[in-house]
Design goal:
By secondary structure, the protein is mainly α. The chain has 2 domains: 199 residues, Growth Hormone, Chain: A (Up-down Bundle); 186 residues, Up-down Bundle (Growth Hormone, Chain: A). The protein is 74% helix and 0% strand. Its main location: membrane.
Length: 457
């Protein structure tokens, strides 16, 4: 096997192991630690840390340590989060969440940079077009990585499936599930009963082992790479801190970006709702915590398949059709969730919603990033720093109000953000289509390699 492909596979399986652990834990935070809203507070803190670090930390760390050791260090932050869950309290989980937030932006920036470099190296070696090889490598990475949502949640459901079977949930308790759920984060009910401490420790032990394996795999088998500069440019130093920070915010002078910041914020809002509210107020409330993993498997599997499908489909349909599909799908889900009264007798419905949500999320993850890459081709670094920043802000806000708003209000907020984001996107699309040689028109059939820099925490 040629060296560059081996490195891509090592990176992919390292992320698979790491996010098998982290993804499974994230899905359970709101259900496991519902007392005083600790679980969602931890997630809000995590994305707050990411919000701050995405503005300056990635280029500094990558410049000092290189991609490989930045990846190893950032992965250690994720392992610390698993360890913090062993003795979950405000004094352990919140600091661990801050660590993950600081490491997350660096992790994803280093991942994108590493794959781009090895893709271009391979292209130079074989005489292929750089963007084609980079796109291929990103495709391999996400094909492997996206399955982490399946394995992490499968492990949690199998472990918690050892819980004693609970009795029938009273009808009056079921009336408080779904959109009717208000302040459930601070109320303990039979349906949200914690698994035994032994089962929790078993699960955390498995997840921590996966994290350590990921760090070991990267440290031992991933080869360090250096970015080759084009001829005539000479040695290029990493931009200073203030230059990186200013370039991120200076791009906001572009009216198109000011309109499009709602798209990454929508991505944060909708993912936060599924992992923080749907898992707790619908699945755990009506079925029990042992079903959270199975429900999230549907989301992860459909998201992964549709990400690959939509990346190819965009070349033939254009992005507008896919954005319309994502908006209509999510709109239908929001309206249905407002009206639906979850009940254990309707078991298949609990899996339909995350599957449709995964389809819509695949549109946002692939097409949002590709759109940013095409529109801001000359300022890609600043554009994607903005993308990560505004997506993280969406997570922070959504998890921040999670503990004191009714689920119905959260759905109306999400509906408002979705409507505003689509209106803003439509305005940008219309403006760009009026330019004969606008970048959006030119990039309509461009492969969505930039979409691979998505931030999936």
């Amino acid at each position: 096997m040629e060296g560059n492909l081996k490195n891509v596979l090592v990176l992919s399986f390292g992320f698979l192991l790491l996010f098998t652990a982290y993804g499974g834990l994230q899905s359970l935070q709101s259900s496991l630690y519902s007392e005083e809203g600790l679980g969602v507070a931890a997630l809000s803190t995590l994305y707050g840390g990411m919000l701050l670090s995405s503005m300056f930390l990635p280029p500094v760390l990558i410049g000092k340590l290189g991609c490989k050791w930045t990846l190893v260090l950032a992965m250690c932050c994720y392992v610390a989060f698993s360890l913090g869950n062993f003795y979950a309290s405000w004094y352990t989980l919140i600091p661990a969440s801050v660590l993950v937030g600081l490491g997350a932006a660096a992790l994803w920036s280093a991942q994108g940079t590493y794959l781009t470099i090895v893709g271009n190296m391979q292209a130079q070696k074989t005489g292929q077009v750089g963007k084609d090889v980079v796109s291929q490598y990103f495709g391999i990475f996400f094909l492997i990585f996206q399955s982490s949502g399946v394995w992490g949640n499968l492990i949690s459901s199998l472990v918690f499936g050892q819980m004693p079977t609970q009795g029938t949930i009273p009808e009056e308790q079921l009336q408080a599930c779904g959109a009717s759920d208000c302040l459930m984060a601070t109320v303990s009910t039979n349906s949200t009963k914690r698994p035994s401490q032994d089962l929790i420790y078993t699960l955390l032990g498995i997840y921590t082992g996966c994290g350590f394996l990921a760090v070991l795999l990267m440290a031992v088998f991933l080869e360090p790479v250096r970015d080759a500069q084009p001829e005539g440019e000479g040695e290029k130093q990493a931009p200073p801190f203030w230059s990186t920070l200013l370039s991120t915010f200076k791009l906001l002078r572009d009216k198109r970006l000011r309109l499009l910041i709602l798209l990454p914020m929508l991505s944060g809002f909708e993912q936060a709702f599924l992992s923080g509210d749907y898992t707790r107020s619908y699945t755990t409330c009506a079925l029990g915590i042992q079903f959270v993993g199975y429900v999230m498997i549907c989301f992860g599997a459909v998201d992964a398949l549709c990400s690959v499908l939509f990346g190819r489909l965009a070349r033939h349909t254009g992005r507008t059709v896919l954005f319309a599909l994502g908006a209509v799908t999510q709109l239908a889900c929001i309206i249905a969730l407002l009206l639906w009264k979850p009940h254990p007798s309707q078991l298949p419905v609990f899996f339909v919603f995350p599957s449709l949500w995964g389809m819509a999320d695949a549109v946002w993850q692939t097409q949002n990033n590709a759109l940013f890459g095409v529109l801001f081709e000359k300022n890609k670094e600043a554009a994607f720093a903005n993308y990560r920043l505004w997506e993280a802000l969406g997570f922070v806000i959504a998890f921040g109000y999670s503990t004191f708003l009714c689920v119905s209000i959260k759905l109306y907020v999400l509906l408002g953000v979705l409507s505003a984001a689509m209106a803003a996107y439509g305005a940008v699309e219309y403006t760009e289509s009026r330019k004969a040689d606008g970048p959006l028109a030119a990039g309509r059939t461009k492969p969505a390699e930039e979409g691979a820099t998505q931030t999936k925490l």
